Amino acid sequence: MPRLMLTDGTWNVLSKVMYLSGRIYNKPDHRKTLEGILYKMRTGIPWRDLPSDFGRWSAIYRRFNLWSKKGILNELFRALSRDADMDWVFIDGSIVRAHQHSCGARTADNESIGKSRGGNSTKIHLAVDSGGLPVYYELSCGNTHDIVHAESLVANCPTSNMVVADKGYDSEKLRAFVRDNNATPVIPRPRKGNSLVGNEDIDWCMYKYRHLVENAFGRIKQYRGIATRYEKLERNYHSMLALAFTMMWLPMWAD
Q: Are 139 and 162 in contact (CB under 8 A)?
């Protein structure tokens, strides 16, 4: 039997959220199916190569695709992250390579896969709470600048006291937006010779904690199915990310 990730305690938490959503029925094989999806996420193998211990690969994929359409995995993430400590919020973006098999989806949308000299890629825009746990995320093409999704990250997070970001988010418009949301921006300005505004107002002690959002990226990229994107549809990769972030929250809920 392949290595599993769910204990009785963690499955009890996840199953309650799944069934209370009212979008799926209570079936005894759901735990094995979820283990198969987790195995796929952890190893990055093709769906067809899933060990038969989890059941037929086609059935597992169809159920994952159905859960993705219904937003079940996103519901798990939202339910477990509702008690986030929102005193501080840290935002950042991280690029992941898109495998050649993830390209070519028969849709009119770009599916958040961008092309550049480095190849095909997707960018994850993430906001984490005071403890470094994820609270909100979005996807874009890999060649999209971080600042494009900055206001959306702040707007979709619960109210916080401080918003911390690196120099890539240097924008007076963003700072004003953060202040309009009753938070203090901690965003340093690049050192330019013609700059009339310095960084004397920056809380550098708080800025040192910005590594919390980078640590979150490091944790989810331990899963090979996250570190490299194999899913053709943005919706399915978004659901895989929701599952990875759910696994970060689980220790806070399970016995």
A: no
